[in-house]
Structure formats: structure tokens, C-alpha cells
């Protein structure tokens, strides 16, 4: 890998940023229920997504949020009860028109969590299978398989059986098999959850590079927020069978529209209070006094709302920073070394007596001591005000 | 599993024709399994169109009925106690003590299949025959006895029970060791930490936690010994012991025939075994419930026994000797020209084999047994695989399970009697035909075939099938290229088991094989009754070796297939 990996990373980024408006997967209002212990469980409550060519859409959420069900419905491995799904402009499922195409007629490929390599076939046979199913001539299959194996650095392993490969190598065979048929859409079902951290990063880069080369539309399911941020051009956070928010990873991180998305995307500190709007900003009356922040979704005056900030948005300083809001005296309770920075837990004094704790990132060498008093400042342009709702 | 299989159903199964074929097969197999039993019940309970118990009155008044009842009771109770103790003790020694010998722990479960009853029995007959038995000769020499016979005879109850128990003990071993493996050894460690001695721990913790498993295995052995035929026939006959299944056989084979009495007894046996089977199912269910959830401790379950270790190992060695020594004796005897010939190289010859192979009947019997066994095994596995696959796919399995597992609750003697009643006469007229034998083998071994097929089908990996579909493979290609290669090794292993059981079958063969279709089990009985023991030993060894060759080939294929699967 080494240097080539870096350059292919850059080209991948360029390809990924080029907006194709050619929609490859369109799901609208997809509904899916399962028989559960007590009655039906709704796994998808009318979900709609659009994924253009060259885009990598990541479905992110905790287990049971419906992300895998949506992926499998697109593949044709599950049959929804309602809605419509089209792949490359062709309707593959429609409840209204009674259309259901089986998976083998949908022109999608899929990478499975368990790799799903056929144990009785060699690496070359595994990779060539999708071509054989599409009635490609033998000589051509052999040539394409060799190209594909070279592309995933498995050139010499064609005659091995899957059980003779390492986990990372097996995953690359699974990747090659998914990509070789040149499908418009490739589905990834938590493909990296079974390999160790180092291999995971390497294969993630390889997926990005392969997407740049083959320009497919990707849908990628994961519950790992870091992995999602690294690979997504479009991040779709799901919650209980519904889409919570869609956007670029940075948008979802900086401007979450709900406490659910905010906390799923990373560590947060929350202070709750009553909202009043001023000049496009929202002021909250909280136990630590007045908190001013930006609303990322509609907030009604007088409602309960929550001010949310991430560790790196707050600054713990020795002197009062001079700002007239969002500055609170605080005591450092705990410092933890996190590598690039220190994570500091501070306690804010409150009017009600019950202290509020906040987690803040501080640069190393800022000279903070546990038990000492400082000021915490969170600029109002960073702090998000979100509806209280359910978390 | 389920969603993948549902998917396959939707594609393959929902096609009308496939559905209809499965239903037809189920009806055909249901007929094969249930019709003979129903006919047999009908014949013994209905006389001239009216319900009657006269057949049973006749049975109770039959000569030797009460002594048969006593013999059966002694035999069953004795075998249950000895076999359960043997198997249970082996299980405890292997799973819970440092007397464990890994190689033997692997071999024990396959002994019932690998060591056919007939080989074991004739091995013991050769070892302990009063005058010429090798063990007896050795003992006389060691103890400087002046007699020409004895000191040990196996023509008695203790020997009959012991030999049967040696053969059945692995059943108890499998059930009890599975339960011990499931129970967390931390239970015992907790007892030790709390101050209980090793023996107190054994009595108060180990034994109670495996109580249901012990009960379940005792009932299992009761079912097996009620139906056991080979042991009481060969060992019991010289000792004037007649158990129920031998009584049924005599009813059919002796002159004047007493078919009605034999059939009535077969019905009675079936009913008694039903009760035991129901009890066994309950016990087995309770044994499954007793599995303790939670994280298992990683500590070794093997308790050090100190000097006792060698005592326990001694017992393990004794058991293995009790299995293997007779086989060695059998091979030796098959090389000697007549019973009692001195064991020396000069006397060794292949004469017995030559005469077995040149004798038309025994040669034909060998060929028949191997081909009938192979055909029955193929058909049984095919039936079991199709029906069990259909059951998983439709998620409706009651009817299928019933049909496949009912034969396990019918003693083979009774099954053979039922087949005679149902198929021997018009309209089928199958008596003495190869078809009747093969059908009976299929029926008798359906439960074993089904167990193997269930294991194979449950190992079918859902994602491997889905991966084929998303690779654009048609259902047919998926079935051929992905599903079949995954199922085959498991089905093949099942084939080996059924083949082995069929080749070595005695009980059914002796009642159903006619003059034109001799098979090994039946010819062995004939030779034995006409005193041609060396020929039986040669035939047993030939069967054993030929089966081993088949198994070795099978094992090679299966392990090669297994090597390529993770």
C-alpha cells in the first residue's frame, strides 16, 4: 500500500466530491414489519432515501434501528410491506404495482458481515462466480478475475481456499467478488466488524479507492460512528425505523437537529432550560445562568430546550475571556490523557445547587490542575440549541 | 437461517410441483412407517370385525410365557443398571477428572456403530467357550487348574448382561457427558471452596446436577434392551434364557409356527416401549432445561484424583479391553480351521474365508447385505434430507417429525413382525424379496438418517446462500453450486451410519430374509444354529473389514470436504 494508498485517497476524494445527480437507488416510504413476541414490530416506518452514482451513503444507528433491514430490502433479501424501491431507474419493488424482483435480478452486489465466501470454492472461483452467473465467457472470466485479484492485492492467492486466508484477505476477496460484476449499486453490511482495527483502516481506504475507480453507488451499514464519518459522503442516521438526519458527516457533527443525533455522533455536554429567541439565536435560562446558542431546528419561545456542545467547542481558561455570555466559573474535577489532547471534566456552579458537569478538550500543556478554579467559555456560534424531545 | 430458507421456499418450494412432490413423499413415507404398525394392531385386536383380546389370552397361556417375562425383566433391569453405571462412570471420568484420555473420549461415541453386536458377541463366544475359549485356556494355565473346561462360562445372565452393557454403555456415556459438559464446573469449584470434600462434592453437586441426564440415559438403555435381539439370541439361547424379542422370533421360526402369539407379544413390546419413550422424552427435555446459563468459567473442569487417577484409568482400560479383546479373538478364531485348534502360525489359514466366499449362500449374503445396506442408506438419507429441508423451509414440521422419528419407538423385532403382517401376504406378496428388506431397513433407520440430515441442514449458512443470490445466481444454480456442496458432507456422514447399521442388521433380517435373498445377519444365525461358528467369525470379520474400508473412504471424502469449509 504505502504511497499509492495516499494518492488513491486523494483521487477518491475528488471523485466523491464530484456531485453526480444520476440517482442509482431510490427508496420511498418503505415499510417493513416483523412478527414479534407481542404483535408486529415495525422495523421501517416509511423510510425514503436517494443515492446518486459515486456516492457512499452510510446508514448509521444502533442495532435494531432498521438500517440492516433497509439494506436487505434494497438487495431483495427482505420483502417490505409498503413503499417503492428502484435500482438504476428500474422499479424492483412496489407495493402499489405488486412488483417484487428477486435479488438475482436487481443488478446489485453485496458484501456481507461474515464475508460469506463459499468454503468449497477457491478464491478465483469465488470472485468469478458473479460473472459465471451472468454467462460471461470462461476466458474473459479468468482475465477479469486476475485483474480484480491484483486490484485487491491478492494476485497470487487464486488457488487457495478461503479458510487458508487471514481475516483481512478474506474480506478483500469478498470485496472483489462484490465489485467484479460492475454492478451500479454495491451494498455493504457491516463489512469491517469482524476484522481488527489496523486491517479495518486499510480495507476502508481500499473501499474508497475502489469506489473512485469503479464509480458505483454504495450503501454502507455500520454502527460505528468513526467508521461512518471516515467513509461517508452522505450520512444517514437512523432511529427506531426512521431517518433522524441526513447530511455530510461534518454537518451532522456540527449541526445535529436532535439530541439523539448529537449524542450518537460523539461526546456531548447538555444544559437544559427555557428558550427565548433573540436575533436568530436562542437564549436559554438554565441552572448555570443564561446560555446562548444557534438553533439547528425550530425552537418555540417558552419551550424547554437543551444547549449542547462538544468537548472541543469549549475552552477552559485561567482569566475571564471578556465575553458577556456563555462564560461560567468552573472547577476541574478530572483530567484524562487522550493522546492528541487532554480531556477535562469540569463542574459548573448552579443556582439550584446540583452541580452540572461538562466534558471539555484542552490542549496539552495548558497547565490545568485538578481542584483549581477556571472559566469555561463556549462561543455561542458553536453551541447548538436542540428541542428537548426524547434522547 | 429462517429468512434465508423462507426465501428459498418462496423461490423453489412455492412452486406447485415441488410442493406436491414433497407432500407425495411424505404420504408415501407415512404409509411405509405407519401402515405396518396399524395392520399389526388391527390383526391382534380385531377378530372377525369385532374388538377382541383373545390374541393376548392365547399369549398369556403360551408355553414359557411366564419364564420369558421373568427373563426379560432380569435382562432389562440388569442391563440398565450395568450399562448406565459403566457409561455414567466413563462420562464422569472423562469430563470431570484428570484420568481423561483424549483419544478414547473421541472413540467412545462411535463404538456402537463401529463395533457391530455380532462381532462383539462372537468375540466373547470365542474367548470364553468352556473348553476351547482362549481366555479360559489362559486362566486354566495361570491358575494351574486340572480341569478341561471353565473356569468362566458366558452361558448365564451376568455374562449376557455384561456383554450387552459393554455395547450399550456408550449411549449412556454420550448423554451424561453432554450434560456434564453443559454444566459449569464452577458449580463444583464453588462447593470445594465452601469446604466440601471431593467426595461430598461428587455426591451433593455433580450427581444431582446430572440426575436428569442419568435418568434419560437409563430409559434410553431400557428401550434398547427391551428390543435387543442379537445378544439374547446368541448368548442367551445356550443358557436357556428367552427374552421377549427372542420369543417373537421363535414364534415365527419354530415349528409349529405360533404367529398370532408372536404378533401379540410384538404389540405388547411396542406398547411398553411407547411408555418408556414418552418418559425418556420428558427426561431429555428436563435435562436440556437444566443447562445453566451465564458466563462459563474458564477453569479446567478436570479434577486431580491423585493416586485414584490410576484406578479410574484402570477402569477405562478395562472397558476398552472389553471392547477390543473380543475383536482380536474374533480375528484369530477366523484364521483357525476349527473350534479349539491351537493358536499357532502353522495353523493359521484363510480356509474359513475361502469357504465363506465359495459357499453360494454366504457369498450371496455378503453381496446382498452390502448392496441392500447401500441402497437403503441412499434412500433413507434422500427421504430424510428432502423432508427435513422442507420442514425447515415451511417452518411446519410436526407431521414430518412424527413420520421420521416414529420408528425409533418401535423395537426392531416388532417392526419386522409388523412388516410380515402388512406386506408378506396379498396384495403385496413381498415376503422374502429384496424390496421388503430394503423397505424395512429404511424404516428402521429413518431416525438415524434424520438426525444426520437435521445436523447437515442446520449447518447451512444463510449468508452463503444470500451471497449467491446477490451474485445474480438463479435458484437452480444456487441449489446446485452452493446448497448441495454444503449439505453433501453431512448427508454423506449420515449415509455411512445407516449403511453400517444396515450391513450389520440381524433382528429384522432374520425374520424377513427369504431363501432367495440371504443377508449376513440371517446367515450368521443359521450358521450359528448349525454349529458353523468358525464360518460366522470369518463372515463377521469380512463384514467388519469391508465396512471399515467403506468408512475410511467416506471419512476421507468427508474430511476433504470439511477441510475446505471453515
Molecular structure report:
The complex is a heterodimer of chains A (about 400) and B (about 575). Chain A has about 400 residues and is an alpha+beta fold. Chain A is about 25% helix and about 35% strand. Chain A has 2 domains: about 25-255, Rossmann fold (3-Layer(aba) Sandwich); about 270-385, OB fold (Dihydrolipoamide Acetyltransferase, E2P) (Beta Barrel), CATH 2.40.50. Chain A contains 9 helices and 21 strands. Chain A has a 6-stranded mixed sheet with strand order 7-8-9-3-10-11, with helices on both faces. Mean pLDDT of chain A is about 85; it is low at about 1-20. Chain B is an all-alpha fold. Chain B has 26 helices and 2 strands. A two-stranded antiparallel sheet of chain B has the order 1-2. In chain B, strand 1 and strand 2 form a beta hairpin. The longest helix of chain B is centred in the middle third of the chain and has 35 residues, at about 360-395. Chain B is globular, with a radius of gyration of 25 Å. In chain B, about 45% of the residues are buried. Classes of the chains: A alpha+beta (about 400), B mainly alpha (about 575). Chains A and B meet through strand 7 and helix 3 of A and helix 1, helix 22 and helix 23 of B. Chain A: Keywords: ATP-binding, Cell membrane, Ion transport, Iron, Iron transport, Membrane, Nucleotide-binding, Transport.
Furnish the topology, listing elements before pairings.
The complex is a heterodimer of chains A (about 400) and B (about 575).
Chain A: H1 3-17, E1 23-36, E2 39-52, E3 56-60, H2 67-75, E4 82-87, E5 90-94, E6 99-100, E7 108-111, H3 123-133, H4 138-151, H5 167-179, E8 185-189, H6 197-214, E9 217-222, H7 225-231, E10 234-239, E11 242-247, H8 249-254, H9 259-264, E12 269-278, E13 281-286, E14 289-295, E15 304-309, E16 315-317, E17 327-337, E18 342-348, E19 356-362, E20 373-377, E21 384-387
Parallel strand pairs in A: 3-9, 3-10, 7-8, 8-9, 14-21
Antiparallel strand pairs in A: 1-2, 1-4, 4-5, 5-6, 10-11, 12-13, 12-15, 13-14, 15-21, 16-20, 17-18, 17-20, 18-19
Chain B: H1 2-13, H2 16-45, E1 46-47, E2 50-51, H3 54-61, H4 65-96, H5 102-107, H6 111-114, H7 117-128, H8 134-142, H9 157-182, H10 186-193, H11 198-209, H12 211-227, H13 230-236, H14 244-253, H15 259-289, H16 308-334, H17 351-358, H18 360-394, H19 398-405, H20 412-424, H21 434-458, H22 462-470, H23 475-503, H24 507-512, H25 520-529, H26 533-563
Antiparallel strand pairs in B: 1-2
Helix pairs in contact in B: 1-18, 1-22, 2-15, 2-18, 2-19, 2-20, 3-15, 4-9, 4-12, 7-13, 7-16, 7-26, 9-12, 9-13, 10-11, 12-15, 14-15, 15-20, 16-26, 17-26, 18-19, 18-21, 18-23, 18-25, 21-23, 22-23, 23-26, 25-26
Amino acid at each position: 500500500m504505502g504511497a499509492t494508498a495516499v494518492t488513491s485517497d486523494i483521487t477518491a476524494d475528488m471523485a466523491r466530491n464530484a456531485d453526480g445527480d444520476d440517482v442509482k437507488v431510490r427508496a420511498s416510504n418503505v415499510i417493513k414489519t416483523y412478527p414479534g413476541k407481542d404483535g408486529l414490530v415495525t422495523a421501517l416506518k416509511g423510510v425514503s432515501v436517494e443515492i446518486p452514482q459515486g456516492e457512499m451513503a452510510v446508514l448509521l444507528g444502533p442495532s435494531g434501528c432498521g438500517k440492516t433491514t433497509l439494506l436487505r430490502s434494497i438487495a431483495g433479501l427482505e420483502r417490505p410491506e409498503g413503499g417503492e424501491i428502484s435500482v438504476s431507474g428500474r422499479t424492483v419493488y412496489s407495493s402499489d404495482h405488486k412488483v417484487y424482483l428477486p435479488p438475482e435480478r436487481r443488478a446489485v452486489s453485496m458484501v456481507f458481515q461474515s464475508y460469506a465466501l463459499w468454503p468449497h470454492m477457491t478464491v478465483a472461483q469465488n470472485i468469478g462466480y458473479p460473472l459465471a452467473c451472468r454467462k460471461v465467457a470462461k476466458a474473459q472470466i479468468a482475465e477479469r478475475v486476475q485483474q480484480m485479484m491484483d486490484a485487491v492485492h491478492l494476485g497470487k492467492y487464486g488457488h487457495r481456499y478461503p479458510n487458508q486466508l487471514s481475516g483481512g484477505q478474506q474480506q478483500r476477496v469478498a470485496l472483489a467478488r462484490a465489485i467484479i460484476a460492475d454492478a451500479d449499486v454495491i451494498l455493504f453490511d457491516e463489512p469491517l466488524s469482524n476484522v481488527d482495527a489496523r486491517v479495518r483502516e486499510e480495507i476502508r481506504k481500499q473501499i474508497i479507492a475502489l469506489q473512485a475507480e469503479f464509480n458505483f453507488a454504495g450503501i454502507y451499514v455500520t454502527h460505528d460512528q468513526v467508521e461512518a464519518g471516515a467513509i461517508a459522503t452522505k450520512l444517514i442516521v437512523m432511529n427506531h425505523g426512521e431517518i433522524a438526519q441526513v447530511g455530510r458527516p461534518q454537518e451532522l457533527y456540527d449541526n445535529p437537529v436532535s439530541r439523539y443525533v448529537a449524542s450518537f455522533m460523539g461526546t456531548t455536554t447538555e444544559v437544559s432550560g427555557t428558550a427565548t429567541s433573540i436575533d436568530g439565536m436562542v437564549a436559554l435560562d438554565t441552572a448555570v445562568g443564561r446560555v446562548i446558542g444557534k438553533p439547528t431546528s425550530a425552537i418555540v419561545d417558552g419551550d424547554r430546550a437543551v444547549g449542547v456542545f462538544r468537548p472541543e467547542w469549549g475552552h477552559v481558561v485561567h482569566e475571564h475571556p471578556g465575553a458577556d455570555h456563555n462564560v461560567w466559573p468552573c472547577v476541574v474535577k478530572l483530567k484524562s490523557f487522550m493522546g492528541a489532547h487532554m480531556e477535562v471534566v469540569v463542574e459548573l456552579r448552579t443556582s439550584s445547587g446540583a452541580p452540572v458537569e461538562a466534558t471539555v478538550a484542552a490542549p496539552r500543556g495548558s497547565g490545568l490542575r485538578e481542584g483549581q478554579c477556571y472559566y469555561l467559555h463556549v462561543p455561542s456560534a458553536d453551541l447548538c440549541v436542540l428541542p428537548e424531545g426524547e434522547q | 437461517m429462517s429468512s434465508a430458507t423462507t426465501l428459498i421456499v418462496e423461490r423453489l418450494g412455492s412452486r406447485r410441483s415441488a410442493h406436491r412432490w414433497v407432500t407425495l413423499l411424505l404420504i408415501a413415507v407415512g404409509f411405509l412407517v405407519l401402515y405396518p404398525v396399524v395392520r399389526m394392531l388391527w390383526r391382534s385386536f380385531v377378530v372377525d370385525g369385532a374388538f377382541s383380546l383373545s390374541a393376548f389370552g392365547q399369549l398369556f397361556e403360551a408355553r414359557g410365557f411366564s419364564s420369558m417375562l421373568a427373563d426379560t425383566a432380569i435382562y432389562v433391569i440388569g442391563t440398565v443398571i450395568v450399562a448406565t453405571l459403566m457409561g455414567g462412570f466413563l462420562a464422569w471420568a472423562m469430563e470431570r477428572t484428570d484420568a481423561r484420555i483424549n483419544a478414547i473420549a473421541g472413540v467412545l461415541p462411535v463404538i456402537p456403530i463401529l463395533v457391530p453386536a455380532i462381532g462383539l458377541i462372537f468375540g466373547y463366544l470365542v474367548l470364553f467357550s468352556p473348553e476351547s475359549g482362549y481366555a479360559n485356556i489362559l486362566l486354566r494355565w495361570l491358575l494351574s487348574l486340572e480341569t478341561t473346561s471353565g473356569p468362566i462360562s458366558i452361558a448365564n445372565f451376568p455374562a449376557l448382561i455384561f456383554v450387552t452393557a459393554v455395547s450399550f454403555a456408550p449411549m449412556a456415556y454420550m448423554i451424561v457427558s453432554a450434560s456434564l459438559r453443559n454444566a459449569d464446573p464452577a458449580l463444583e469449584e464453588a462447593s470445594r471452596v465452601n469446604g466440601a470434600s471431593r467426595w461430598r462434592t461428587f455426591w451433593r453437586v455433580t450427581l444431582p446436577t446430572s440426575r436428569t441426564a442419568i435418568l434419560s440415559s437409563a430409559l434410553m438403555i431400557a428401550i434398547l434392551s427391551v428390543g435387543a435381539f442379537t445378544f439374547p439370541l446368541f448368548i442367551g439361547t445356550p443358557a436357556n434364557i428367552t427374552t421377549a424379542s427372542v420369543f417373537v422370533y421363535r414364534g415365527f421360526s419354530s415349528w409349529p409356527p405360533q404367529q398370532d402369539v408372536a404378533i401379540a407379544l410384538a404389540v405388547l413390546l411396542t406398547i411398553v416401549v411407547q411408555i418408556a419413550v414418552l418418559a425418556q422424552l420428558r427426561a431429555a427435555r428436563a435435562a436440556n432445561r437444566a443447562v445453566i446459563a451465564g458466563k462459563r468459567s474458564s477453569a479446567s473442569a478436570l479434577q486431580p484424583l491423585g493416586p485414584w487417577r490410576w484406578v479410574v484409568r484402570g477402569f477405562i482400560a478395562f472397558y476398552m479391553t472389553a471392547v477390543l479383546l473380543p475383536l482380536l479373538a474374533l480375528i484369530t478364531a477366523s484364521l483357525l480351521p476349527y473350534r479349539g485348534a491351537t493358536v499357532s502360525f502353522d495353523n493359521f489359514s484363510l480356509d474359513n474365508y475361502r469357504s465363506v466366499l465359495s459357499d453360494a449362500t454366504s457369498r450371496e449374503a455378503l453381496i446382498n447385505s452390502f448392496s441392500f445396506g447401500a441402497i437403503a442408506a441412499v434412500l433413507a438419507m434422500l427421504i430424510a434430507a428432502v423432508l427435513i429441508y422442507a420442514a425447515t423451509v415451511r417452518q411446519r414440521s410436526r407431521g414430518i417429525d412424527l413420520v421420521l422419528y416414529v420408528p425409533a419407538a418401535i423395537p426392531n423385532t416388532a417392526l419386522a413382525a409388523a412388516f410380515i403382517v402388512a406386506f408378506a401376504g396379498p396384495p403385496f406378496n413381498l415376503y422374502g424379496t429384496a424390496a421388503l428388506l430394503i423397505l424395512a431397513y429404511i424404516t428402521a433407520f429413518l431416525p438415524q438418517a434424520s438426525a444426520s440430515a437435521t445436523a447437515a441442514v442446520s449447518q447451512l449458512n444463510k449468508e452463503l446462500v444470500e451471497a449467491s443470490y446477490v451474485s445474480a445466481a438463479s435458484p437452480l444454480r444456487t441449489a446446485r453450486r452452493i446448497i448441495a456442496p454444503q449439505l453433501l458432507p453431512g448427508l454423506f456422514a449420515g449415509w455411512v451410519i445407516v449403511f453400517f447399521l444396515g450391513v450389520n442388521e440381524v433382528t429384522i433380517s432374520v425374520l424377513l430374509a427369504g431363501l432367495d435373498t440371504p443377508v449376513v445377519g440371517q446367515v450368521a444365525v443359521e450358521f450359528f444354529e448349525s454349529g458353523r461358528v468358525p464360518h460366522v467369525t470369518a463372515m463377521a470379520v469380512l463384514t467388519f473389514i469391508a465396512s471399515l474400508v467403506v468408512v475410511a473412504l467416506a471419512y476421507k471424502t468427508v474430511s476433504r470436504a470439511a477441510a475446505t469449509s471453515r
